[in-house]
Design a protein that fits this description.
single chain, alpha+beta, seven-stranded mixed beta sheet, 7 strands, 41% helix
Length: 148
């Protein structure tokens, strides 16, 4: 009889260990799926801002006016803060996005297919994001304002 009890105990411990491994693997998989979804949402946000920027620039150039557009951006992505920055160099303008509250080099960069002078940044969770576009002497200025 004493030899049967240890085999039950070993079986019980082996079952607990296998169960813990399965639960850990499922948890890790779920976290990876969530992180991938957050990354995809961040990239989609950069594409959205680029598209809205192009639409605003086109409308402003056609009407030779100043215009503002309030962006429909989420407060947080998952439970993370994010930032958006628009900038340009002599050749192109772009939208950069990344997670966090300090603006650094962008995690994703999406180009704005227009000749504009772009500047400004937005940090999530601190008010609405607004794109402002104006035309001055045949030059187009695009500014992202809002947030802190």
């Amino acid at each position: 009889m004493p030899s049967i009890v240890p085999s039950y105990i070993y079986t019980l411990f082996a079952t607990i260990i296998v169960g813990a491994l399965i639960i850990g693997a499922c948890s890790l998989s779920a976290m990876n799926i969530r992180a991938e979804a957050e990354e995809q949402q961040l990239l989609n946000l950069a594409r959205y801002v680029s598209t809205e920027s192009l639409a605003l620039v086109t409308c402003t150039k056609r009407n030779n006016a100043t215009a503002q557009l309030s962006l429909n951006v989420p407060t947080f992505i998952g439970e993370k803060s994010y930032w958006i920055k628009i900038a340009n160099d002599s050749a192109t303008a772009w939208v950069e996005v990344g997670f966090g509250t300090s603006i650094q080099q962008g995690q994703y960069v999406v180009h704005i297919p227009a000749e504009v002078s772009a500047s400004g940044a937005y940090v999530s969770g601190s008010g609405p994001a607004v794109l402002e576009c104006r035309v001055e002497a045949d030059a187009v200025y695009l500014t992202l304002i809002g947030g802190s």
